[in-house]
């Protein structure tokens, strides 16, 4: 997935905001909370970071093309960085980005979830 495709996909999710921060990373948020980060790793590949369930984290963390997200996973958070397509195709990555969006959305306050139309 190239950067333009990543940004277009994240933009298509409801109620998202985009900022460029942390040294040029493209950060997507829902309700002010991060659900996806894309930036360049040391090798020049686009690394895309997303939040996962505990089970998905355990499955993906040692797979080729994936690793625990630098900084986030070191703090005990369940975030994965996809650095290559060996394990996750672009389609699979899109599915994980949607799951990340939903995980972060469900962590928002009920009031904010209602304001964003995520719950009734």
The number of domains is 1
* Overall spatial form: globular
Sketch the major β-sheet. Answer: 6 strands, antiparallel
What is the share of helical residues?
A: 25-40%
What is the correct CATH architecture?
Alpha-Beta Complex
Give your account of this protein's structure.
The protein has 120 residues and is α+β, with helices and mostly antiparallel strands. It has one domain (3-114): Alpha-Beta Complex (Aspartate Aminotransferase, domain 1). 32% of the residues lie in helices and 28% in strands. It has helices spanning 3-11, 54-60, 90-106, 110-115, and strands at 16-21, 25-30, 33-40, 46-51, 66-68, 79-82. A 6-stranded antiparallel beta sheet has the order 1-2-3-4-6-5. The longest helix has 17 residues, at 90-106. It is globular and about 40 Å long.
Per-chain topology:
Blueprint: H1 3-11, E1 16-21, E2 25-30, E3 33-40, E4 46-51, H2 54-60, E5 66-68, E6 79-82, H3 90-106, H4 110-115
Antiparallel strand pairs: 1-2, 2-3, 3-4, 4-6, 5-6
How is this structure best summarized?
The protein is an alpha+beta fold and 120 residues long. The chain is built from 4 helices and 6 strands; from the N terminus they run αββββαββαα.
């Amino acid at each position: 997935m190239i950067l333009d495709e990543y940004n277009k996909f994240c933009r298509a999710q409801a109620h998202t905001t985009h900022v460029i921060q942390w040294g040029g990373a493209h950060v997507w948020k829902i309700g002010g909370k991060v659900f996806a980060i894309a930036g360049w790793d040391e090798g020049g590949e686009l690394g895309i970071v997303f939040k996962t369930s505990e089970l998905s984290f355990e499955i993906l963390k040692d797979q080729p093309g994936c690793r625990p997200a630098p900084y986030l996973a070191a703090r005990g958070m369940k975030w994965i960085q996809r650095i290559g397509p060996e394990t996750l195709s672009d389609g699979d990555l899109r599915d994980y980005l949607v799951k990340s969006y939903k995980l972060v959305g469900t962590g928002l306050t009920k009031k904010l979830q209602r304001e964003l139309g995520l719950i009734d």
